[in-house]
From TrEMBL:
It catalyses: N(1)-(5-phospho-beta-D-ribosyl)glycinamide + (6R)-10-formyltetrahydrofolate = N(2)-formyl-N(1)-(5-phospho-beta-D-ribosyl)glycinamide + (6S)-5,6,7,8-tetrahydrofolate + H(+). Belongs to the GART family. Residues 4-199 form the Formyl transferase N-terminal domain. Its EC number is 2.1.2.2. GO terms for cellular component: cytoplasm. NCBIfam families: PurN (TIGR00639). PANTHER family: PHOSPHORIBOSYLGLYCINAMIDE FORMYLTRANSFERASE (PTHR43369:SF2). This is Phosphoribosylglycinamide formyltransferase. Keywords: Purine biosynthesis, Transferase.
Length: 207
């Protein structure tokens, strides 16, 4: 049985590419990306999807809000969820999606498809550095001798930011000679692996 996923992106789409590659090399068996949705028309990840013959959609928050005074972040969340529901997917993967999903988005699925998982990759260990700039914050704390390492987690998405059930974690070493750029590169390489592992874990359980 095919396990269908929707991937939400905002930018370059390197995590998306890791998923595409893992499907093509059969590491993710019976997994299909049904649709890639971006909140930005300029996201290069859309080109990656098109090259792999994957359907794409763009649903910009800014554009949506500008069209009507009745449009809010809450109604955007509902509309985004309705778009995704058209594809009848088994899993939603946030892969560099830079908008906090409102409660209305989560409610649309809990009311209509409660068994569907929504997962996010966050570049910090559970309880550390929720929200934006997590890698930079870890790097600065390392320089101040507050931490000796950092890490990342894949977690289920709930209303509270970066606080859902943790599916897997991976520690990331930080070295004295690191720059922020070298640390970010180390994170990104692990992100690609961890996100694929989380999808494999969920898709395998469902079959």
């Amino acid at each position: 049985m095919t396990f269908k996923i929707c991937v939400l992106i905002s930018g370059n789409g390197t995590n998306l590419q890791a998923i595409i590659d893992s499907i093509e090399n059969k590491y993710l068996e019976n997994v299909k990306i049904e649709v890639v949705i971006s909140n930005k028309e300029t996201a290069y990840g859309l080109e990656r999807a098109k090259k792999a013959s994957i359907q794409t959609r763009v649903f910009s928050l800014q554009s949506y809000l500008s069209k009507s005074s009745e449009h809010t972040r809450s109604t955007y969340g509902t509309e985004l969820a309705k778009i995704i529901r058209e594809y009848n997917v088994d899993l939603i993967v946030l892969a560099g999606w830079m908008i906090i999903l409102p409660a209305s988005f989560l409610k649309e699925f809990s009311d209509n498809k409660p068994t569907l998982d929504i997962i996010n990759l966050h570049p910090a260990l559970p309880g550390q550095y929720p929200g934006a700039h997590a890698i930079e914050r870890a790097y600065n704390d390392f320089k101040d001798n507050k931490i000796t390492h950092s890490g990342l987690m894949i977690h289920k998405v709930i209303e509270e930011v970066d606080a859902g059930e943790v599916l897997l974690t991976s520690e990331i070493p930080i070295y004295p000679e690191d720059t922020l750029e070298t640390l970010e590169d180390r994170f990104h390489k692990q992100e690609h692996k961890s996100l694929v592992e989380a999808i494999k874990l969920i898709s395998t359980k469902s079959n």
